[in-house]
Design goal:
alpha/beta, isomerase, disordered N terminus, binds ligand L4XM7KOE, six-stranded mixed beta sheet, 14 helices, three-stranded mixed beta sheet, elongated, delta(3)-delta(2)-enoyl-CoA isomerase activity
């Protein structure tokens, strides 16, 4: 679908029977469109699509696609919005719109090919290593800003279970590349067959609950080494970490309202405790993005380091901490966290239930559609 919508010239196959008085202009406009050098943008392309359909087939006559069939729904909405506009008027409007766009002598071969598949066969999106008493779990999808796919959630759950009983003293999360992680991969929700939306939301809620539970129950010191911007779930989870070290180029962003979603990772409970309700609300409800310094001032981050020395300083320090007696580390963590565990599990369950409903909401669907159409540039 994305490929079909990438540029309307590929789909403007004319129905000969539909062409009447302005057949030549219409045909010319279609050819002119092929010569456009600049992508005219999604809005214009949807208009062109709708006018073309109206001019050739008349008023919208197909069933409304499901909410999660983002691209077809956008096309259907645009066509349907033309109501009973006569075919001749639609044809004229199409011609006018095309001639208002700047022509070029370049051919449409300039159009970029569709984006490559997210995961290369055999690639490792989560890399787990163990050395010097430290188990390191690294997000390794730098070309996608380390966005977390469904399989990555599962791999992380597995990695945490393994790390809880391995020989390491501490466990560290970090990201490869310029981002720590851009959070949930938004395409997790866009390739869903229309008849299984509710089931997908339910499965996502179950997976999310299990994922966050693995952090709540993790018995050893959990450290985040935040090498760059962090978005969404990787930020909310920080309330369940014991130590958070950040580069001064890191940022912390939880744009849940913008996405039609709601907080997860127990942040609705941990953030007000960590930074007070007013500051938590600013992040979790209003989506204020924090710098590393601001996050540190609010107590979400333990310490900020200059980017130039970040890796060296942090790992030197962590290697020294990892030499501390492992049982003592574990017991002290247990003392600090155990009173909260029951509450955290209840908060997690509640947040997942609320999110399950949010994922089915029109607000969330629209936000996902915006992301997909921005990516595909239609
Ligand atoms: C059965 C179903 C199971 C579901 C699994 C469970 C679900 C649990 C859900 C838990 C709830 C979690 C909530 C969150 O985490 S909310 C936060 C979601 N993240 C975002 O909203 C960030 C979206 N991305 C962006 O805003 C920008 O990409 C960003 C600011 C991060 C970077 O911008 P920049 O301009 O620098 O770079 P690009 O946009 O060009 O990004 C490079 C490529 O990476 C792709 N990308 C980046 N982030 C994501 C993402 N989160 N999801 C998918 N893809 C992402 C981006 O599209 C670019 O790809 P292309 O080069 O192919 O275009």
């Amino acid at each position: 679908l994305l490929q079909v919508l990438r540029f309307p010239v590929v789909q403007l196959h004319m129905s000969r029977t539909a062409m009447r008085a302005s057949e030549k202009d219409f045909e010319n406009a279609r050819n002119q469109l092929k010569l456009l050098m600049k992508d005219p943008g999604n809005e214009v392309k949807l208009k062109l699509y709708a006018l073309y359909k109206q001019a050739t087939e008349g008023p919208c006559n197909t069933p409304k696609p499901s909410m999660l069939d983002f691209i077809n729904k956008a096309k259907w909405d645009a066509w349907n919005a033309l109501g009973s506009l006569p075919k001749e008027t639609a044809r004229q409007n199409y011609v006018d719109l095309v001639s208002s766009l700047s022509p070029s002598s370049e051919s449409s071969s300039q159009v970029k090919p569709a984006a490559a598949n997210e995961k290369q066969p055999g690639s490792e999106n989560i890399i787990v290593t163990s050395q010097d008493g430290i188990t390191k779990i690294m997000f390794n999808r730098p070309t996608k800003k380390n966005a977390i796919t469904t399989s990555m959630y599962k791999e992380i759950i597995h990695a945490l279970k393994a790390a809880s009983t391995d020989n390491s003293a501490i466990t560290v999360f970090t990201g490869n590349g310029d981002y720590y992680s851009s959070g949930n991969d938004l395409t997790n929700f866009t390739d869903v067959p229309p008849n299984s939306i509710e089931e997908t939301a339910k499965n996502a809620s179950i997976l999310l609950r299990e994922f966050v539970d693995a952090f709540i129950d993790f018995p050893k010191p959990l450290v985040a080494v935040i090498n760059g911007p962090a978005v969404g779930i990787v930020v909310t989870l920080l309330g369940l970490f014991d130590v958070v070290y950040a580069s001064d180029k890191a940022t912390f962003h939880t744009p849940f309202s913008e996405l039609g979603q709601s907080p997860e990772g127990c942040a609705s409970y941990t953030f007000p405790k960590i930074m007070g309700p007013a500051k938590a609300a600013e992040m979790l409800i209003l989506g204020k993005k924090l710098t590393a310094g601001e996050a540190c001032a609010r107590g979400l981050v333990t310490e900020v380091f200059p980017e130039s020395t970040f890796q060296k300083e942090v790992w030197t320090r962590l290697k020294a901490y990892a030499k501390l007696p492992t049982n003592s580390l574990r017991i002290s963590k247990e003392l600090i966290r155990s009173n909260e565990k029951e509450k955290l599990h209840a908060v997690n369950a509640e947040e997942c239930t609320v999110l399950q409903g949010r994922w089915l909401s029109e607000e969330c669907m629209n936000a996902l559609m915006n992301f997909v159409s921005r990516k595909s540039k239609l």
